[in-house]
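explain this:
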Amino acid sequence: MHDSIYAEILTIGDEILFGQITDTNTQWIGTELTSAGIRPLRKTSVGDQAEAILTALGESLQRVDILIITGGLGPTKDDITKHTLCRFFDTELEINEDALALITEFFNKRGREMTELNRQQAALPKTCTYLQNDWGTAPGMWFEQNGKVVVSLPGVPFEMKNLMTHRVLPRLKALFDVPIIKHKIIRTIGIGESFLAETIEAWEDSLPAHIKLAYLPHFGQVRLRLTATGRDEDQLNSELEYEVSRVLPLIDKFVYGFDNDELEDVIGKLLMAENATLSTAESCTGGFVAHRITSVPGASRYYTGSVVAYDNAVKINTLGVPESMVREYGAVSEQVVTAMAEGARKLLHTTYAIATSGIAGPEGGTADKPVGTIWIACATPDRTVTRLLKLSNHRSVNIELTTTYVLDLVRKNIMQTAQN
């Protein structure tokens, strides 16, 4: 019995390396393997080159128990995964009658002609176990050698997910004596990674050996991921909750949620609990704050809308910002962002409103207001709170960070109002 079962993920395809598609398969597979008690150790991407694939196969199987391969199983000449696997396992292709019957049925149902290339998709390495693909024409393949497992799956995400869920994961769980791996995530904002580490150092050092801590920073936030490994799920859950209860008093003011909570989810729940509403007025973020808020299903119950006041004329004519204020203080100022938030709240008849105005870059900065100078504001029923941000020279980073910080600003003010 192994203490841990390790896996790697190998994605095949020039289109991944060229940046022509985004590899979402690896993230999904990693999550599913972890949920099954299998620990992902590494991910690798290689192009459609046989020697590169062979090298990756050999190196991976020296490190792990399981290798999951995606991609290169199509009917065209650039899809070479099956042929390369034949070389690796010293075997040859033969038509699998079960696969051929399913592929034939696939084309007949759709009234399409099956070509010889399509027929050859039923040709599988003799030594593999056929994995039926219920959603496409490229079968999955399962190899076992010297106690190791290699699984080859199509790269099309919905086909891969179906095969992993119904064919691969049940087999892996039956074959390997896998431990249980449980995660608990604490989501923080407003404290840097190094300061957070210093604050919880003594607690981190006292964690049991089977519970590991990872720091995951992302645009103004730091997620603390606790990972516990063992054999008793209830005991692991209890231990994780106990460790959370120990660390929370140290960092409670920075914690906004747990596990899959996003800031916009938390804000929505707070607003609904108070029967309150929210609107936004955006300049430098160009609607990104509204996008984040409306990404939550049911946001229409508390979010009324946004004014993207990118031009000063919109600030003045729609939000009611005095023209003299813009001339005197500039669009990027505490005075103007305050008037934007208060104007949005009045215009859209909401309990709260938030606003952004700044210089996202890469141009437009001055000596007094360099790129990354951004004001944010939150207007409440009885006050307006502002904050000056001094961010980076990178436009996309500034937009992401500003959005995070202004969402946190309204979160804090909703909580403060509820407490009063």
Summary: The mean pLDDT is 95. The first strand starts at residue 5 and ends at 12. The chain has three domains: 5-175, 180-258, 263-419.
